[in-house]
Amino acid sequence: MDLSVISPVYNEEESVALLHQAVTRALEPLNLQWELVLVDDGSADGSAKQLELLAARDPQHVRVVELRRNFGQTTAIVAGIDHSKGEIIVLIDADLQNDPADIPMMLEKLNEGYDVVSGWRVNRQDTFITRTLPSHLANWLISRVTGVHLHDYGCTLKAYRREVITGFRLYGEMHRFIPVFAQWVGAKIIEMPVQHHPRRFGKAKYGLERTVKVILDLFTVKFLNTYSSKPIYLFGGLGVLLILAAVLLLLVLIALRIFAGEHLIRSPLLILSVMLVILGFQSIMQGLIAELLVRTYHESQNKLTYTVRKTFNIEKTGE
Fold first, then answer.
1. What CATH class has 3-226?
2. Which of 152, 228, 297, 309 is most deeply buried (CB count within 10 A of its CB)?
3. Distance, C-alpha 101 to centroid of its chain
4. pLDDT of 152-194, one tens digit each?
5. pTM, 2 dp
6. Rounded distance, CA 152 to CA 165, Å?
């Protein structure tokens, strides 16, 4: 299988048939073996029935995965990836706001040597206050924190080579961070403008509350990216800073005692300095425990701490 187009579906019974038609129009001229993997994420309308009809109508291309309940967009995407076979994976929303006609151009970018092609909704057709503005702020924040600079992390329409996205698991709302995870393994990433259409059916499934989840997930991504292999640098560094702050407070107390006659025991700064020392040592101990957990995680599963793009004249282990 050359290409898998994966689309999570949640209450989109009016859209799925039109999505199938649009994907078919876009991909038939390409002379590729392709499949459309539609994941029903516990829809409460007639989406499941529509997906079953599509699977019966086009068994060559349509694959349907029905989840038992609504797990969320990220889990639906993971289920789609797990049940797909394509060497290239394209993610697309089922609400028809993404345009499948952009997929051939994304494939051309992959053929130029890129591993990830990320869609950028330049003319986004969403409400500004509740959707577009929070998205702009989130994109700026994610780019600054992760170092992977994209204009539109929230655009589902993205194309990936399978090998750069199958070495990790996604949780929460982390599907938007897939380019960051791919960059960890050395993926070459490019962003390209894509079309964005107004919603034709139903209503948006997300609002401002999603921004909070994204920010919380960003903390996790930053930790995994920077400190997953050396957590002592985070916890130990924080511990050292707390101890240094305690030492500085003690020096201030000594100076106050010498020059101003202040009593050390009565000063709240003494209690604060003692607390900072305790917290500092606790943070360092947490870092050491985290180091042991990291080693257990990698060594118990034989996980490598590096990834290899290519080898030349090197036989694979076991051959």
1. alpha beta
2. 152
3. 25
4. 988 899 999 999 988 777 777 788 889 998 988 889 999 999 9
5. 0.75
6. 19
